[in-house]
Amino acid sequence: MKEENRKYAELAYDLVKDAENFGSRLPGSENERKYADFMGEKLEEIGIKSKKEEFAVSPRSGIGGLPYAGWVGIILSVLTYFALYNFHIWFAMAAIGIAMVIWLVFSCFLYKPWFDMFFKQKISQNVYGELVPEDGKYDYTIILSGHTDTSWNWKHSENASKYPEKPIYGLITTYGKVGFGAVCVFFIIGVAVAMAAIYTGIIFNADWAIEIAASKSMDIFYKLLNFIPVITAFGSAFVAMWNDASEENASKGAMDNATGCALSYAVIKYFKENPEKMPKNCRIVDCNVGSEEAGLRGSMAFVHKHRNDDLTKNAWNINIDSVADKEYFEVVIKDDWQGCRFDTDLEKMFKDTFNEMGIESKTNGCIHNPVGGCDSTPMTRGGIKSVTFAAQNPMLTWYYHTFHDHADRFEMETVGQGFDVVLSVIDKIAEFQEENGYNGPQKK
Q1: What count of other Cβ atoms lies within 10 Å of the Cβ of residue 331?
Q2: Cα distances (angstroms) measured from residue 324 to each of 5, 30, 50, 441
């Protein structure tokens, strides 16, 4: 960390600790709103007008609703005993299972908002402020973003806190439970669909269905169905308890993602107090994004709101998400499940910065996000050049998405080094823009 930037690093770290005082900040919650307002007030304190844009969010329609898949597995397991005596129940079970899989894939895994209308809605918000050059003229925009909300407590990950020095134990217990549970859920759904298909064939006198129903294998399978649902119900329970519905037990979100909001603010404050260091012809935006944990809903709303104005024209987004683990500085260049590759120019700028600053990372300074998504995906799809900057162990840890995510777990110097990294990348963006006549990343 550069000594001349220490006061901004201390400011950012203090803001992280302030965020903890709000308690958990689940998507659409009162605490999320209070924290977003707090960050807006911080912008006002330094003379930057804050703007609030509200949007509807259904917190449990996406990844927050994953436990519903476990409950479906439990319900189908119980219904199996009734279906053994009334085959019509298989049809209802198959319909429920197929509907759940469709919802799970598109809403929980791909973050599509198609099913939001079927779940309870709340109001979330994006809060942002703009710092423009003293003459009011600019040719491009750099958006610094971090999300204000926190995650539900992941019970299995939290249980791994018993082995903080032996993370492999936590990984085995977490992935073992959830993996076994997922197999059980999909297995009982598969049984229901298969049985519904067979009985449909029988109704229509299909030879293949009649042969299967009369086979010895089917007789054996029917006998096994007296025991299998006990196993699938037990395994499904691990999925049902994946995240805790209690707001009180939810993550306080020091690393994920008060660090992102705090660093974004510290950077814009730095340029506000040092106007001579502002990039030429550049506007800088500090954007506090809501409801990221509910499926990137805040960044989606931001991009949709500004798709036709100059906030998304010739714009760059440095999305900052979790800067706390000093051995894992990295640039996230892709959301694999979302099928979204982020900007290669920004990727290179971050990698060059890590090399110039002598930052050694166990991830070699670059990762893909293998599961879920980050706010760079909506930004990228909206025509904004974006990557996500993080310093976080990419393996599932006892403090990720649990109530153990506290500021006293990591060091102010790590946050300060993150501040230095962002400033360096901003300098590189400025050089890129100047070399390209301030017309570099225009939307195609």
Answers
A1: 26
A2: 17, 26, 27, 30
Among 320, 379, 314, 373, residue whose Cα is nearest residue 350: 320
CA angle 290, 294, 297 (to 5 degrees): 50
Residue 145 CA: distances (Å) to CA of 46, 61, 154, 305, 326: 18, 24, 25, 16, 20
Using CA of residue 151, residue 156, residue 159, residue 161, what is the dihedral sign? negative
387 exposure class (CB count in 10 Å sphere: 0-12, 13-18, 19+): buried
- For residue 356, the model assigns a pLDDT of 97
Separation CA 421–CA 431 (nearest Å): 16
The arithmetic mean of pLDDT across residues 108-136, rounded, is 94
CB 288 within 8 A of CB 144: no
pTM of this prediction exceeds 0.90: yes
Indicate the range of 50-54, 173-177, 259-263 predicted with least confidence. 173-177
Report residue 157's pLDDT band, with 50, 70 and 90 as the boundaries. Answer: confident
| Among 281, 341, 24, 299, CA closest to 142 | 281
- What six digits make up the tokens of 76? 């189908």
User: What are the residues facing 385 on neighbouring strands?
Assistant: 316
- State the greatest distance between any 2 C-alpha atoms of the chain, in Å, as a whole number: 84
- Mean pLDDT lowest for which of 167-181, 323-337, 422-436? 167-181
Task: For residue 166, give both structure tokens.
Answer: 């032996």
C-alpha span between 424 and 444 (Å, rounded): 27
Share of the chain above pLDDT 70, in %: 99
Give the SS3 label for residue 77. helix
d(CA 112, CA 108): 8
Sign of the CA dihedral running 65, 70, 71, 75: positive
pLDDT given for residue 441 in this prediction:
54
Cα–Cα separations (whole angstroms), residue 269 to 1, 3, 194, 266 = 18, 17, 61, 5
Answer for the pair 333, 342: CB distance below 8 angstroms, yes or no. Answer: yes
| 287 contacts 143 by C-beta, under 8 angstroms | yes
Residues in contact with 353: Cβ distance below 8 Å, sequence separation at least 6, in sequence order: 359, 421, 424, 425, 428
